[in-house]
Amino acid sequence: MGMNEVQHGRADARSEVAVAYLALSEGELGHAARHLGSAFAAEPGLPEAHEALAELAAAAGGALAALEWFPTDEASSGIVACMAHLYAAAGFWDAAVDRLGAVIGAEPERGWAQVAWLARPDLAGLVSPEAVGRAVAAVTGGLPEGPAPAGLREAVGPFRGLVGAVLERHPEHTALLTLASVLARRLGEPDEAARWAEQALAVCQAEIARDPSDLERYVDVAEVYQRTGRPAEGLPWLDRVLDIDPGHPTAGPAVHALRHAAEGGGTEHLLALSDHLREYPDHGYAGHLLAELCDGVPWLGHVHPASEASLGVLHRILADPGTAPGSGIELVGSHLEPPSTVLAVRMGLPRSGIAYKCVPLPDPRLPQHEVGTRLWEFDGPAARPALDPPSRPAAELVRQVASVGWDAPGAAYDHAVRLSGLSLGDLLAVCVHPPLPRDSAQGAYLLGRQPELWVRAVQTFACLGIAHHHADEPWAGSRRRAVLIDLLFGPEDWVNEAAGFALLATAWADPAAREEVGALLTDRMTAVGRAWQERDATILASLCRLVLGCPWVERGVREVAARMLAAVTRYET
Question: Is 393 in a helix, a strand, or coil?
């Protein structure tokens, strides 16, 4: 962060503190709390903000009472930081460290850890190693894989000091030792990372020597190896468990996670983990591992981002504090974009329009082959929905069910079963008439910053709902299959991607559908890839990732998808 940005942030923070004091003087504690959250978000270490937070606590009748004035449904970093400091003031150290770890992990380069209570010499004896472990996991998730730069190490330094002090008091806490080893490696401390990893292994192996029948300890050893970057060395320990108990509830799932890490990623072992969970639904550890491995991966854990040029303009305008709610713009694009792009622009800026100068060739308005389901009608480059809006109850149900993220493809598929009772007409109509996001902090963020993610979420869950339509019909001849294939091969649009994911999720849930789904996704990716050689095709990266989500497809096809994805990504960058 440059000096100008720092000074601007400090000025914003002081302005928010001034408003908070005014609210306090008028007894409006909730108003004051919100402005203090904004102050901490702008400048986490501002002394005036900490002083104002203490005055709010006094006015509320104590730190715990003050917590009630902070909106828990608004997960902004500033709000969470305020809650961490209030918990610390009240002596609830586990809760304080938990929440501070969350904000450090969200923005590790900021000065969240530069706070007096974190440097207390007695804090290591006041906080539990479990709470510190949760915080370490959150912080590590926000750090880069490689050694962090000096500025980042300095920002996280006080937290790193607490971790070391807690481990001195709990030298046999294997979970914390393992997590701390990963933290040390990412902070550029390889010797300390290796020492803590070996210490964790020694503790586990000593426990095994005392009681060789405790199979969970073998799993612990394997996971220490995995988390410290040596998954191949952990596999023999899992093999020993599975030789004794082939249905072991943690070793069975863990072997897939370690193989995934040992082989450098891909989706083969993620699918195997999903299949394991389908066969053993009571093995909750399989679901935990699958969610962890799918987290942050487009289509496996969340909707694929969009990359259209008009969205970049939209984001800049929405981020401008001077943009009035309900305002509009008139954009002129050099070439036609997917029609759903207009839905996103108009959701964020309702009085907006987009005009395109030309329709590039090959013509993206034409379906790949004849389809029986149409969502869009074209008048030159201008597109309009070919369907009337859905019924209000249907739109509201989709609004409640749709989500930008999920634990894994199977979890998204299962969640969408709530839409199975809607008519095909309503599910199709909602794709081109998406409802507004839910009334929540996340909904407000999506509407005010990235409305395209919500449009894509609605289309994704509408297509997943179609995947459940008349589920009693055999898949091969079903109406749901035919409609999803129509949507996949229709005019180039985000709905192609949404239908492709619904087909992928169906195949993950139903092995009998896999061969055909893989062939369909490959066919669509190949056709769009050919078009991309002549013109822009913004849905191509997404289609490539969908094919890569089909590990049953022959390796050569997946290699083509990976090369094409790399080429598209370089081009977009």
Answer: helix
Q: Is the separation of the CB atoms in 505 and 410 below 8 Å?
A: yes
pTM for the full predicted model:
0.86
Low-confidence winner among 165-169, 317-321, 538-542 (lowest mean pLDDT): 317-321
The model's pLDDT over 181-220, given as tens digits with 9 standing for 90+, comes to 999 999 999 999 999 999 999 999 999 999 999 999 999 9
Calculate mean pLDDT across residues 539-559.
98
In 10 A of CB 123, how many CB atoms? 19
Alpha-carbon distance 398 to 289, whole Å?
A: 28
β-pairing verdict for 353-356 and 330-333: parallel
Give every CB contact of residue 491 below 8 A, 6+ residues apart in sequence. 339, 364, 365, 366, 367, 376, 378
pLDDT at 317: 92
CB 137 within 8 A of CB 179: yes
Q: Which residue has the tokens 């799993």?
A: 219
Which residue do the tokens 């902090």 mark?
441
Helix (H), strand (E) counts: the chain: 27, 4
Mapping DSSP to helix (H, G, I), strand (E, B) and coil, where does residue 42 land? helix
Helix axes 251-262, 215-227, angle to 10 degrees: 20
Cα 440 to Cα 34, 323, 454: the distances in Å are 15, 21, 13
Four-residue CA torsion sign, 325, 342, 538, 496: positive
- Do 544 and 498 meet the contact criterion of CB atoms below 8 Å apart? no
CA distances from 100 to 53, 77, 108, 176, 235 (A): 16, 9, 11, 17, 35
Which residue, among 563, 495, 488, has the nearest Cα to 529 in the 3D structure? 563
